[in-house]
Amino acid sequence: MATPPIGHRTKDFRKLFCGVRKKLQKIFRTQNEIFIIPSSATGAMEAAIRNCVDKKVLCLVNGAFGKRWADIARLCEKDVETVEVEWGKAIKPAIVERKLRHNKFEAICLVHVETSTGVMNPLNEIAAVVKKSGALFLVDAVSSLGAIRVEVDKLYIDVCFTASQKGLALPPGIAIISVSERALNKSRSVKSKGFYFNFELLLERAKNDEPLTTPSTSHIFALNKQLEKIEKEKMINREKRHYQLSKLCRSLGKSKGLEIFSEKGFEAPTLTCFKNTLNLNTNALLKFLDSRGFTISGGYGPLKGKTIRIGHMGDYKLKDIKLLFDAFDEFLKGL
Amino acid sequence: MATPPIGHRTKDFRKLFCGVRKKLQKIFRTQNEIFIIPSSATGAMEAAIRNCVDKKVLCLVNGAFGKRWADIARLCEKDVETVEVEWGKAIKPAIVERKLRHNKFEAICLVHVETSTGVMNPLNEIAAVVKKSGALFLVDAVSSLGAIRVEVDKLYIDVCFTASQKGLALPPGIAIISVSERALNKSRSVKSKGFYFNFELLLERAKNDEPLTTPSTSHIFALNKQLEKIEKEKMINREKRHYQLSKLCRSLGKSKGLEIFSEKGFEAPTLTCFKNTLNLNTNALLKFLDSRGFTISGGYGPLKGKTIRIGHMGDYKLKDIKLLFDAFDEFLKGL
User: Fold this and answer.
1) ipTM associated with this complex
2) What confidence category does residue B92 fall into, taking pLDDT thresholds of 50, 70 and 90?
3) CATH number of the domain to which A48 belongs
4) pLDDT value of residue A132
5) Could you give the C-alpha distances from B129 to A165, B61, B125, B149, in angstroms and in order?
6) Which of B24, B64, B80, B304 has a CB 3.0–4.6 Å from the CB of B116, allowing a cystine?
7) Cα–Cα–Cα angle for A309, A311, A313, nearest 5°?
8) pLDDT tens, B110-121?
9) In sequence order, what are the beta bridge partners of A114?
10) pLDDT score at B75
11) Helix B181-189 and helix B199-206: axis angle, to 10°?
């Protein structure tokens, strides 16, 4: 992040940008085009909607970020339908299949791992249902990609994106988006895409290894470094580490009397969401842990006070989780 | 940039964010709301168009970034008219006044300093004409704000924006936008604004000193530091320094046989654009200077090979310009 910026229309930058995008294709497990944009993941959601939906879109909602898909699509004046499932439960392929039996959509939007509830939706199974329907598949992989395997090509994911600060464990500031040929084709016929998130314009520049507009060069440098580190760790080990982290986190939480909020069998390997079964003052807990160097989260939106979320994605080690629960113990003893 | 990120929904971040926005209001010379978004300045342009124009917009074009205003507005499906002036010439208030005599627009878009031609458009005089017309005034102040004074409130600029990497001399990655009450009101009635650049949503969060979506915390830390430095230098001295830099740059260029490309009396204090009167191979020149540690630019778009642009905004000192021309001399001698 501290590397001084270089001109983004220079040969050196093009080389860096090309290398980063190639490394990202490996992480995304795709041959698709990769765009990197100064933006949060919300911008990537909007990009997916603006480029891939002319009228009718289906949003699968079981948490705050699924709801965001729908909010964005409505604010882009699209004709939005939703499949809604109780927060904390996973979206099952059957309910999607039922919806698709009598309805046709240009695109279907899913959040892979719902950061608000700690639920990992069954991506593979839903992907199969979406594929049969012929709709474009738009996937928010913010809290999964870079931490666990997301098979973009094998699952025919047309638009898949993440941000820098989750599985890739970098500071926030950029969104990374893979876009299929089908999505690019669709984009050509969709109007009112604007400029900033326009896949056609992004593609034109990407062919020449250039960003569309001024990039966050600091993030590109950092991303390059981090992708080298991930290559060294190997994705298979990185994924394994995340499953170990979540297993440990769940079991330590349970040993303190906390229950898991997320539906059994669908717990995310990247974050754990506990019910606040101990009726703790979550604000006080967060403040105490912060004073010990740990940042965790309370409930998101309507779950405020009702859940405790512990993120363990990126570069965390088992030891970090143990130390976190030591501090948690200290908090309990002080009550 | 290297400060480790903190949670953006924490009290510490809100305090930082509030302080930065207050310092920015001083630089923008405004009481208006300030939004900071992970985005390039192009995104800020799109934000201005999407929020402030329902149908009819006038774009004033005398270079690549004026043209971008028009491109963006067209891609957002707005009804766009332009006033076009030869690249290298300034837009005079009279031509705008003529256009407005028989046409009504919801908004009028101007680039203050055209980075592609080194021309500074007469902002004060155009502002007076726009004010009379009742249209919203949207100003790209990318290559001026933070280096020289831009009087947002005094000139009734409804949307004014810059990016981090120009007058503020930080790495690129964020856009900073001031938005007037009138622009916020207009925004409420405009449809298809989307989510990411939506002034209504940004405002709702800003009231609580929060960003709408995950911010680039690294840039916010850096911006805070840099704004403290600017307060110490004082804007009046910073502006003076930029006028000295441009004067020196022009005179050293002329002494080497280069003519100024930009119209006399409208030369930007932040960058100098020379005609390539010596018929130099600009690629070779740029490469040579780069090897000496200086990054300058050739002609932008249709001016490729025809102009040489030297940016001298941000934290540059007179000595830097002298050293640059020493290297330029070295290049000439080597021909």
Assistant:
1) 0.96
2) very high
3) 3.40.640.10
4) 97
5) 46, 16, 7, 20
6) B64
7) 160
8) 999 999 999 999
9) A119
10) 98
11) 130
Helix A217-233 and helix A235-255, axial crossing angle in degrees, nearest 10:
90
Q: Are B209 and B14 in contact (CB under 8 A)?
A: yes
Does B8 contact A at CB distance below 8 Å? Answer: yes
- The answer as to whether A1 is a domain residue is no
Integer Cα distance of B329 and B179 in angstroms:
46
> Is B161 in contact with B182 (CB distance < 8 Å)?
no
Can you read off the two tokens belonging to residue A125? 């199974």
Q: Distance between CA atoms of B120 and B186, rounded to whole angstroms?
A: 28
| Partner residues linked to B59 by β-bridges | B82, B109
* Cα–Cα dist B235/B237, whole Å: 5
Q: What is the CATH number of the domain that holds A254?
A: 3.90.1150.10
State in Å, rounded, how far the first CA of chain A is from the last one: 41
pLDDT at A65: 98
d(CA A160, CA B85): 43
**With bands split at pLDDT 50, 70 and 90, how would you rate the model's confidence at B233?**
very high
Q: Can you give the pTM of this predicted structure?
A: 0.97
Task: Provide the terminal-to-terminal Cα distance of chain B, rounded to the nearest Å.
Answer: 41
- Contact list, A290 vs chain B (CB under 8 Å): 10
Q: CA of A212, closest CA in chain B: separation in Å?
A: 10
Single out the residue in B191, B216, B233 at which a domain terminates: B233
Q: What gap in Å lies between CA A33 and CA A181, rounded to an integer?
A: 8
Window 211-270 of B, Cβ < 8 Å to A: 212-219
Q: How many CB pairs under 8 A join A and B?
A: 151
